[in-house]
Amino acid sequence: MKVVRGIRGAITVDRDEREEIKQASLELFTQILTENELSPDDIAGVFITATPDLRSVFPAEVIREQECFRYVPILCAQEMDVEGALQKCIRMLVLAHTPKGPQEVRHVYLRGAQSLRKDLYQGGGKT
């Protein structure tokens, strides 16, 4: 039986540039789908935040450009501006229908974002 699970992920970029943000957002989203064996029909919605220093483009734009995700609800918001927090970071929460239990879900943290969830990090750039 499939239930809706939240799958987390994050990735950092070097610069606040449109193409770099879009590429990183697509890389993260694709890796979350791959690691969790998800198809477009499994996705119930996606919530994305970006740190205040990323203003060139909405990270959701690149997902919406994929025809198979055209009707998936996607929302972007600005991450809280907390002193000392990781900068130039895109965080993602994918809500997906999956038969996997909470312990089987693979959360994905890439590049500098690996430091966000050291409790989950298992190597290879993902958890």
UniProtKB/TrEMBL annotation:
Record field: catalytic activity: chorismate = prephenate
Positions contributing to prephenate binding: R8, R91, Y109
GO process annotations (BP): amino acid biosynthetic process; aromatic amino acid family biosynthetic process; chorismate metabolic process
SUPFAM superfamilies, sorted: YjgF-like
Keyword Membrane belongs to the record: no
EC number, as in UniProt: 5.4.99.5
InterPro entries reported for this sequence: Chorismate_mutase_AroH, RutC-like_sf
Entry keyword set: Amino-acid biosynthesis, Aromatic amino acid biosynthesis, Isomerase
UniProt-recorded Gene Ontology molecular function terms: chorismate mutase activity
Entry-linked Pfam families: CM_1 (PF07736)
Name of the protein described by the UniProt record: chorismate mutase
